[in-house]
Each structure stands twice: as structure tokens, then as C-alpha cells.
């Protein structure tokens, strides 16, 4: 691949353009908003404006509802030899492209499973896709050259190709992406009218659950409108679980011993099923999640403190597998949670204490 056209200079389009230009591909940038194009170009993502001659690959990075008309236009005008899209829904746009008279031979639906809460070109980074799955949904009609160019794009972006059926992909993202977004927003919405004293008690748990609730509502309305059926099906199942949990909680307050016992069993069932589901989420390097030990260290909010604690862990010969920071409300301090292999936890704790760090018992 020597040349490419990116149509849509939001987070995904600009990030792909940055990755390609960084690896020597000449990228042209197009968007209905000229200011976004100018911003992406200023960031080094490519050249503003459509190409004069056909490029190797066009990357359509627009909302799902616009994929079909934009792709059909690119094909009709001969702007690229091959065309892919990177929208988060795949079945509907492909059917709409066929209805619009588009060429399915020269088109391939793809979806990089990567993103951020922020949107727009200023949120883009060249390493956004590093190590992330990038779904390809080829059909028997897909031209080999198109598939090869898509695979080359994925390799240049440092992502991992995953081949799926388009409708199976849409059901999968409804479960692992679209429904979690709605549930996160629903939990966060409870905080809007909450008493200030309750909000001040927010800890790392509520921060984890509501992190993606900061996402752009307009963008998510477009995504959910393109995949409503599968998301509604999963939400209906969740609603059933919620009804059962409510009944179980009511039973916990009953004076009847038998009812209370049923409530305990109901809540325990939900929690255990949650344990089982969480255990299936891939961990480091895509492997099964490891049972890491957590070493919690009190850390002040001063420049260089994180670097110092990582250096001390390295000097102790301990590899940090994961890290989280729990900020203390109203204080210039917090706890950094270092996840390590169980066998290394005691050595790390001893080494950090020797270097003057204050540890919290887990």
C-alpha cells in the first residue's frame, strides 16, 4: 500500500491515518467538516483534500448510517481500487450498500475494536490500535486484493485480524460494547440527582463502572440506531436478572427464614454467575486472566512518584502485570494498586517497605 484515502477524520479515521503516514503511506483526508480535516492534517495525519488519481485503499470512517452512501460515492467516482469501512456495525451497512447499487466485490466491512471516551481528531493517536482485535467480515464476493489491503492496513496499525460473519459480529459487539455503554450510562445517571454527600463517597468501583459513560451521546445514538435488535435482546435478559435480584433483595429483609434463605441464594447466584463470566474475559496478551495479587501502596500526588515506585519494583526484580490508581477524595494522595504474580507479592511488599513506602493491607 502506497496511497490511501481516509473519509471521516474523527478519532478512528485520524488514528488510522496517523499510523499509515508514520509508516510511509501517502494519506489523503476528507470530511464534511473542513475544520476537522485541517486539524487532522496539522497533526500529521495526511494531506487535506481528495486525491487526483485513484488510491490503493479508501477507509470510510463515518457513522454506520452513512457508510453505504459514502462508500457507494467513493466507488462511483473511482477514488480507490479497494474500499473498507471501520464502523462498529457491519450487517446493516453492507445490505444498504447492496441496495444502493454498490460493488461488494471491491468492498470489505471491518471494525477495529478500539476507542476512547473522547472523539474527534484531537483525541487520535497513531498507536490506538496496537494489539487490539480488528474484525474483518469478508464474503464469498470479496476480492482477494481488497482482503490483502485490509490485512496490510491492520498490520501497519499494529492490530490483530479477526475474521467473523457480519451479523455474528453485530451480536457480539451488542454484548461486549453496546450494552455495557448503556448500562454504564444508566448507573452514572443515578448520580446526577444524588445528594452531594453520597457523590463524595465515590470510590474506584463507581469510577470503573461509569468510565465509558463520559462518551459522546450523539455518536452512541448513531451506533445504537444501527444495531437496536441485538442490544434490546441483551437488555431484556439483563432486565430479567434485575427483576430476580430485586425479588431476592426484598426477601433478604423478610422475617420469614425460608424467604430470607431464598434471597441469599438468589443474590449469591447472580454474584457467582458474574464471577464465571468475568473469568472468561481475556487477560494479558489475550490469555485467560491470571489470579494476580494486589499490592496497594500509599502515594502522594507529586511529580515523579509513579516513576519512583515502578523503579523500586524493578530494582526488586518484580514485573508489574497491571496497575490502577485509587484517588483519595479531597486529599493530595491516593493508593496505587500494583498487580503482580502471587509468588512475587511478598518480595515486592518487603522491598517497598525497605524503601520507605507505606502499604495498605488487602
UniProtKB/TrEMBL annotation:
Gene3D superfamilies documented for this protein: 6-phosphogluconate dehydrogenase C-terminal like domain, NAD(P)-binding Rossmann-like Domain
InterPro entries found in the cross-reference section: 6-PGluconate_DH-like_C_sf (IPR008927), ACT-like_dom_sf (IPR045865), ACT_dom (IPR002912), NAD(P)-bd_dom_sf (IPR036291), PDH_C (IPR046825), PDH_N (IPR046826), Preph/Arog_dehydrog (IPR050812), Prephen_DH (IPR003099)
Pathway as given in its UniProt record: Amino-acid biosynthesis; L-tyrosine biosynthesis; (4-hydroxyphenyl)pyruvate from prephenate (NAD(+) route): step 1/1
Gene Ontology biological process terms from the UniProt entry: tyrosine biosynthetic process
Pfam families per UniProt: PDH_C, PDH_N
Swiss-Prot/TrEMBL keywords: Amino-acid biosynthesis, Aromatic amino acid biosynthesis, NAD, Oxidoreductase, Tyrosine biosynthesis
EC number of this enzyme: 1.3.1.12
GO molecular function terms listed in the Swiss-Prot or TrEMBL record: NAD+ binding; prephenate dehydrogenase (NAD+) activity; prephenate dehydrogenase (NADP+) activity
Top-level taxonomic group: Bacteria
Domain Prephenate/arogenate dehydrogenase: 2-289
NAD as UniProt keyword: yes
Reactions catalysed according to its record: prephenate + NAD(+) = 3-(4-hydroxyphenyl)pyruvate + CO2 + NADH
ACT domain sequence ranges: 294-362
Similarity-based family: Belongs to the prephenate/arogenate dehydrogenase family.
NCBIfam families found in the cross-reference section: PRK06545.2-1 (NF005109), PRK06545.2-3 (NF005111), PRK06545.2-4 (NF005112)
Protein name (Swiss-Prot/TrEMBL): Prephenate dehydrogenase
Organism placement in taxonomy: Bacteria, Bacillati, Actinomycetota, Actinomycetes, Kitasatosporales
Amino acid at each position: 500500500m502506497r496511497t490511501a484515502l481516509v473519509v471521516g477524520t474523527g478519532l478512528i479515521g485520524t488514528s488510522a491515518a496517523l499510523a499509515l503516514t508514520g509508516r510511509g503511506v501517502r494519506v489523503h483526508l476528507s470530511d464534511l467538516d473542513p475544520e476537522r480535516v485541517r486539524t487532522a492534517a496539522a497533526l500529521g495525519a495526511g494531506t487535506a483534500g481528495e486525491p487526483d488519481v485513484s488510491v490503493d485503499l479508501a477507509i470510510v470512517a463515518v457513522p454506520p448510517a452513512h457508510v453505504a452512501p459514502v462508500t457507494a460515492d467513493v466507488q462511483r467516482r473511482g477514488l480507490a481500487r479497494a474500499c473498507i469501512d471501520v464502523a462498529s456495525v457491519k450487517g446493516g451497512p453492507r445490505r444498504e450498500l447492496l441496495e444502493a447499487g454498490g460493488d461488494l466485490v471491491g468492498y470489505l466491512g471491518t471494525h477495529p475494536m478500539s476507542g476512547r471516551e473522547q472523539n474527534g481528531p484531537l483525541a487520535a493517536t497513531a498507536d490506538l490500535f496496537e494489539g487490539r482485535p480488528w474484525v474483518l467480515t469478508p464474503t464469498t464476493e470479496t476480492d482477494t486484493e481488497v482482503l490483502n489491503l485490509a490485512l496490510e492496513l491492520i498490520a501497519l496499525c499494529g492490530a490483530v485480524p479477526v475474521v467473523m460473519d457480519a451479523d455474528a459480529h453485530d451480536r457480539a459487539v451488542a454484548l461486549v460494547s453496546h450494552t455495557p455503554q448503556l448500562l454504564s450510562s444508566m448507573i452514572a445517571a443515578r448520580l446526577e440527582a444524588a445528594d452531594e454527600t453520597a457523590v463524595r463517597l465515590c470510590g474506584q468501583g463507581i469510577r470503573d463502572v461509569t468510565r465509558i459513560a463520559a462518551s459522546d451521546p450523539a455518536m452512541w445514538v448513531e451506533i445504537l440506531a444501527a444495531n437496536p435488535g441485538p442490544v434490546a435482546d441483551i437488555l431484556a435478559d439483563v432486565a430479567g436478572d434485575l427483576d430476580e435480584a430485586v425479588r431476592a433483595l426484598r426477601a433478604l429483609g423478610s422475617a420469614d427464614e425460608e424467604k430470607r434463605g431464598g434471597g441469599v441464594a438468589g443474590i449469591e447466584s447472580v454474584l457467582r454467575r458474574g464471577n464465571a463470566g468475568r473469568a472468561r474475559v481475556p487477560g494479558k496478551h489475550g490469555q485467560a486472566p491470571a489470579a494476580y495479587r494486589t499490592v496497594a501502596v500509599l502515594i502522594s500526588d507529586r511529580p515523579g512518584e509513579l516513576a519512583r515506585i515502578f523503579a523500586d519494583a524493578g530494582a526488586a526484580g518484580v514485573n508489574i502485570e497491571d496497575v490502577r490508581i485509587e484517588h483519595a477524595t479531597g486529599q493530595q494522595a491516593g493508593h496505587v494498586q500494583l498487580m503482580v504474580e502471587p509468588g512475587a507479592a511478598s518480595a515486592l511488599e518487603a522491598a517497598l517497605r525497605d524503601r520507605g513506602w507505606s502499604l495498605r493491607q488487602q
